[in-house]
Amino acid sequence: MNKINHRKLLNSKWTAVSPVNKEKHFMITDMEFDEEGVVISCVIEAVMSKRSMEINWHDLKDQQRWLQDWK
Fold first, then answer.
1. In whole angstroms, what is the distance from residue 11 CA to residue 29 CA?
2. Fewer CB within 10 Å of terminal CB in the chain, N or C?
3. Alpha carbons 8 and 6: distance in angstroms, whole number
4. CA-to-CA dists, residue 5 to 14, 24, 49, 55, 59, angstroms
């Protein structure tokens, strides 16, 4: 399980274990927090295609799907 500090998640780099559409490297580009500091939304962007999608940041903990940093 990847350990993630949600406060340091913005601009972090991720590698998809099983790339889709040749999109392997991603970066967290936007996050929204509520007034208590809880993450409301997280946007991840493919580096090559610039395609963005909203993701549940807890999914990044799954090492079967995501690796921290670019590999």
1. 6
2. N
3. 5
4. 14, 22, 27, 16, 13
Six-digit token pair at 29? 């580009």
Taking only the tens place, the pLDDT of each residue in 1-11 is 888 888 899 99
pTM beyond 0.85: yes
Which amino acid is present at 34? D
List, for residues 11-22, the tens digit of each pLDDT value.
Answer: 999 999 999 999
3-state secondary structure labels for all residues of 1-31: CCCCCHHHCCCCEEEEEEEECCEEEEEEEEE
Residue 71 burial (C-beta neighbours within 10 Å; 0-12, 13-18, 19+): exposed
Sign of the torsion angle spanned by Cα atoms 30, 36, 38, 41: negative
